[in-house]
Here is the input.
Amino acid sequence: MTTPLAALEDRLRTVEDTLAIYRLIASHPPAADTGNDRYYRNAFASDGAVDLGGGKGATGNEAIGAIVKTPEHEAAIAGGLCHFAACRRSKSAATER
Here is the structure.
């Protein structure tokens, strides 16, 4: 049987995990719009991959970070690139109670 303290710790962990996911999602638009390659180098694992569609993409946090430093991306920023942030509702076993 779960003790009240253990149940509270589980709920707090779920809240902290959800908040971390929301922060990660919300940080993408301003990072892309400002060319913050450090964000992508830190947000992705060394073997992470991103698929941008149209055959474009990158593998590895260094390559992913470099995307926002390409001439094409910098031109998009200069032209007023603007991403919209929206956090989806997430579900977990703990929130389904």
Observations:
- The chain is about 55% helix and 10% strand.
- The longest helix spans residues 4-34.
- The beta strands are 49-53, 56-59.
- The two ends are 16 Å apart (CA to CA).
